[in-house]
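A student in our group prepared the protein record below, which I am reviewing. What it holds is a sequence and that sequence's fold in token form. My question to you is simply how this chain folds and whether the tokens agree. Do not assume that whoever made the record got everything right. I have pasted the whole thing underneath without changing anything:
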Amino acid sequence: MRQHNLDTIFPYERDIPAMLLKDIPVIQNEYLVNGRLEHWEGPFREVFSAVYIRTPSNMALKMIGTYPLMTEKESLEALDSARKAYDNGKGPWPAMTSGERIAHFETFISGMMDRREQVIHLLMWEIGKSYLNAQGEFDRTIAYMRETIYAYREMEQGSPQGVMGQGILGVAGRAPIGIVLCVGPFNYPLFETLSVLAPALLTGNTVIFKPPRYGTLLFKPLLAIFRDAFPPGAVNTVYGQGKALLPPLLSSGGIDALAFIGTSSVAAYLKGLHPKPHRLRCVLGLEAKNPAIILPDADIDATVEECVKGALAFNGQRCAALKIFFVHTSLVPQFLERFSEKIMGLKYGMPWEEDVFLTPLAEPGKSRYLDGLVRDACDLGARVVNDGGGLSHETFFYPALLYPVTEAMRVYHEEQFGPVIPVVPYDDLNEAIRYTTESNYGQQASIFGRNRDMVAQLVDVLIHQVSRVNINIQCQRSPDTVPFTGRKDSAEGSLSASDALQVFTTPYLIATKETDENRGILEAVGGKELAP
């Protein structure tokens, strides 16, 4: 059976494509501050791949590079650089016209494209992302930045706007917030970091960004491009442990906006450090436990196709993944059988293998955690339905389809963020509705069914619990032109190519009494001719 091959899933070094080996190790010994690449002389953290390397006698994780373990001192130097570059809105970057900032950003995109293959290879090495998915993340990041530029042009064409009423003339527009701290996640380290950095920069803010612990080295090829594309201090980097770098930045009071993707507990801690919390604009992507609700009349083949992708794309390591399945009892046998067959058909292996779908997990100890969820469920009455489900070998974990799952089990409540698929049978739809309403999370939900009245009834409930309801499709962020957010503990703020521009700016109004003299002054100050 296929699962017996797990012992040989990892390669000998001689089996790794030479084009991948040439990009490692990456010695990250520079950081960007005040427009300079400063050489780091302090301690380093070694970076190990999600991929083990076999030898005739044993196996070991592949060491693929190092990065600086910076301190509070360097963290505050980055803040000082960003604040000087912003200079209360008078610095060279915020003082530029929108067209000038766009030109700088297009220079950055052009330079980034020259590093495409190198960044893709590092995504594969660092977080185990397949070549196809790594390509997708890079290309999506470029597309998102271009969409943001387009949205910014559209916004600026109508700004500032003249307003009039009750004897008052005014010009309304939007201004940058100030200093933005960007902290991205490991699962989409490039996309999630640049999808907030791009709108923050374009709108005139200056930025400090900290790469995630897993997914750090891939930014090294981009540092010189950041340096050359933007004025000194507009972009600054810090490397190392978040607990050493982030608290000094937040507690200083010098950060004006926090863009963070991680857990709600860490987000709450960081927000609480700011001495003026009401001045801190937050854009947070947090936990999610997105349910799929499969109605009795669902098209079983189409439903399972979507559910497998929704649960297991990038090994289920996505905030928008489907993480729990409520299946009507009449469909349970078919659902489990088809889902098991689909899992068996998924190719597993190394990130560079053609058509590979399941790959090693980036987080150390993740296989043990997932095994603990499976064991807990089985101890409480569930079983692993699919052949080989739950078997693991070092950083690789084979998907486990669990049934029947009840609320007594950890996997019913915890966000597994990995290839464990809990299936809950139901007879009364209110059981699935209760789960969603009582959940601490409210990002998305998926409904699979054809009865229009039943789907409509469910939608009427779910729109008050989650930010996006998907009908006969998996949960997802795409397209990037629509808002991405969540309710409850799942998010704060909203992102899309246009929404993010609003997030990182604040409205202003220049107003005066309506007289001919004041009209002339206002037109001169606001740079806009006002209608009589």
